[in-house]
Amino acid sequence: MADSKDFIAGVDSNAKKAPRRIVFITRRTSAQVKAETEDQIQTFPEVLFRATVVIEVLAVLLVWIALIFNAPLEGLADPSHTPNPAKAPWYFLGLQEMLHYFPPVVAGVLVPGLVVMALIVIPYFKVNIEAEGLFSKDREGRLRIFYIVAVLLSIFLVWFHVIVALVPTLIIVALMILAAQSSAQSPSGFRRYLAARPLSYWVMTWFLFELVVLTAVGTFFRGPGWSWIWPWQS
Amino acid sequence: MNAKLSTLWQSLFGNSVRAFGVVSVVFLCSLAIAPAKNHFSEWRHYQHGYLKMIRNRSEANTLQRHFQGGIQQIWLPDLGVVDRCTSCHVGLNEASLTDVATQPFRKHPVIPHKLDEFGCVICHRGQGAATTVAEAHNSTLAWEQPILPARYIESSCGECHRGALPGTPVLNEGRRLLARYGCVNCHTVKLADGTTMKATDDPPSLSHIADKTTREWIYAWLKDPQAYAATATMPNFKLSDDDARDMSAFLIANSTPVAGDSIALPAKPSSDPAAGTSLYGESFCASCHAVQNAAGNLVGGNVGPELTRVGNKVKPEWLSAWLRNPRTYDPGTAMPHYRFNDAQVATLSAFLQAKTDSDLLANVHLEAATPEQIAHGKRLVSDYGCASCHEIAGIKKPENFAPELSRIGSKPITQLLFLPGMPHTLPDYISGKIKQPRAFSPGLKMPQYTFTPGQVDALTTALLSLNDRSTTLPPSLTVPAVPESNYQPAGKAGKLMSDLACFSCHRINGHGGDMAPDLTWEGSSVQRAWLVSFLKNPGTLRPALIRRMPRFNLTDEETSELTDYMITVYQNPVIDRDSIPLSGYSAGEIELGRQLFYGKYSCQGCHILDSKNDKGYVGPTLTQVGSRLTAAWMYQWLKNPQSLRPGTIEPNRAMSDEDAQAITAFLMSQKGSTKKEVAKK
Amino acid sequence: MAKTVDQFFDEVRETRVWRSIFRSGTGSSTLHRALTIQQNVFLHLLSTKVRTRMLTFSATWYLGTLTLGTFLILVATGIPLMFYYHPSVPQAYADTKDLQFVVSSGLFLRNLHRWSAHAMVFLVFAHMFKVFYRGAYRTPREFNWVIGVVLLLVTLLLSYTGYLLPWDQLAFWAITVGSNIASAVPLIGNKIHFLLLGGNAVNANALLRFYVLHCMILPLTALLFVGVHFWRIRKDGGLYAHSSEPSIVPAQAGEKPTSRNSGETLRPGSGQAWGTPNPSKEAQ
Asked: ipTM greater than 0.90, yes or no?
């Protein structure tokens, strides 16, 4: 290792540009990846069998569901009789719920477009790579930005009467405030966990929470004229 | 125990190969359930039951030979109907299975259509494509129309048959009621042939109502029409006292007088207390008007309004003018213009004025109307759509006032709001709406009718027949109704006929009422002398009937005008009225006819020829038929009655020419009793 | 008995026919096991080896595998369903009814297809979130994440196009509501709407279009991307495991440089160094 011509050694700790690695590359050999010493297993047969068993268990489950529950089928399509409410497939009901509040360009085009764009660019922006708590560095500055964003978002949602989306937002905001009050030294395990969550975690969790809540509301809580009903009323 | 379980777990899922094996077996077993489920399907169960049932029957072999296993279907491509009912209803066509107690194996009752050509759901509704009991009979998410309850079954006839059928009394009655009670004045009903259903209720104009009646009577009538006349067409709008007060105020204030519809009579009524009653009877007012007798039963016809309490309603001056000539007040009325003299008018008017009910207006005390009340009344009259039925000066007939009913029979259940506790089916909804329309929502305007349960069923039946299929059927598959013609006779005679309102009762060339005989071929069928004497003094041909032709007190000139017109114009093209002589038959021919009449054809079963011995009341009396009918008509009638009057119950006996000639000769010889009648008078 | 069965299978594997079909040969050596994966056109998309701890349920919840499972069920049930289906109005609805009432197990096929489709949409979402929370999209797996997003969209489109096919009220209005959103795109919204439906409203053209997309174009697209998705797992270093990124070290002297990534590495005869050679033994 003494000959500086034989290899270059370096430590790069900027995790945003590259994962933390120590690199030794001799000039005469090409770099190769050596497997870590942890246990590995041949894909055939063990992994294949396991995968097959998992798929079969799923298949058995679905077969029993299919035997017991009939797929929905309504009357012949009739353009002159609009059911009330006319609902999209369940996975689009989150979108349909948003259409209730926002103009179609926003709810139907802008939001899903942005979501898809955001999902695509996630890995390229190296989000979530630090795996550092959001408020572990520059706490004051970040808290200020967080409060501004949270208040603006809440005002925006209240302005458009999107109470359905406001509730999950407030819950996430409350958890983030709790996270800001916590640190790695907190006595409670849950608070230590929250303190270690990075920004990307919070954004994604907020998105997931909103997705689930909006979809559930659209599926179960919406009746004629997209009015609010309880599932047991129908 | 735990150890045992864990050993079991190990031996089943201990390694992935074993787990794979176990899970695969479970998976394959699960997959095998679907075909098994298929095998134990309901229709197979019923077919097994059928085979078991027929085994014990004497005609088992025949039934066994007819039986076809598997899913059966009747496919009607023209109607887009696939009908698999016969998969379970196996014995529908087996003549011997009428006595089977358990469905689904009983034979279908005899109907005019072949099951194989029409299937089941065309009439019974339900989901024909289904092969399970619940899906086929009930309302499901995928199929709204369950099996039609039997009492509405005639609605299905009405999908194709647009006219009245002899076999569908309920449907015919329902259609009649829709028009008769003015339902179609507010609710548009477009028929499949492109026309709109027309009301036949003939509601009076209210533009001149103040000439006819008082504000107090209008108030009482608006509050409860049935309190005045049990048979009133007008429904109860459940108006509040104030609303009825204001509406009556408006109607009186809005009324304009008509010249000549109120007269102070110069004559006094007859002093004979029975004169009114006898004039009322002689004029056959009861043919059209009903009056409640002491027992509370209505006596009389239902063409005109009930007269039980008419004295409470009409002003005496108006009534006199009306009796003298009803066309002054209402040019379009169905009431004939009787040619009463002033004394008769006075007598009849006094008789009618005495028909009062002291309770009716006893509690009605109205103060003079304020302009606000009149304005409010006008608004109410518009809001309740009074002008949909009645002509009211200054208020336009509203268009599309109530929901259109052209396809009510296919209305999706999801668009209906049911009352609590009501079965969620369309027939229940429709009949519920007819029975208690205001119960569905406090803001509704539909008034309360007083239909009997039978009438509600009939209306529901008629409404159910107005559905998607009936509107979209290809014309080749429908049996259109005979369209109502707007025939109007021309000239002087035509004017006279409309003045006498002949068409209120008689039908000519497809136009007019059905209370009295069709006169389309009257010119071919009767002798001129008889017609003249009948018009001057109508007797009756059917003594069993209450409704009779009234005497109009026609002048000789009017009588001969009318007679000439009818004899000349109402000719049947196949009958030459002068081709067979009216008299001069040989005695032998007449005797042969008598024998055939009493013997071979037993005509006396329905007709009375000899009023002492014959007991037939079904057909008209023939005692003076020889002076009434033409021989040519009689001959043709005997040969083929249906060719002259389609649908007549007179049977076609397929007589030979000789028989028909002989009976014609015999009947033409029956002229004698005319003299007796005259002598009696 | 067990012995004879094993022998029987061994004999079968030795036959010329078997050998001609399966190139990997026989034997239970690590080489043979690796060859089984490598020499099979389908299996070679997978890594030869997997980190043992990735087999635990909590690591992945097997969500990717389950999603593949639903896809296979959908293909298996979808093909027989196509036998009974005409994409025309109103025959499509009648066919759906006939599946329910007269086709043997037709209702079961349709149920299974329908529920599996819902399950697939759900599992794809679950898979995505699981991958995100594990951080398994990091370098060098960025592009595989993008392929995953594409597969998510393809799955949604598959489900959405299939939704119309029964041609009932549910289908018709769901598609009407959904496709109206496309009209909201600025400027070209109506054109997209027209292109999507083959008309200005959901009608027979839309049904045919959705049928072709659902049964032909989208499944092939999905298949293609699923293939790439699996292949990239292998090329990108196998299933991602936390804090166990492969380290780059110089090759040992005397050793031949092998392939770059662990999943592709093939070192015959040194099973011990690569983990448990015989999983079945271990399990016992």
From this structure: no
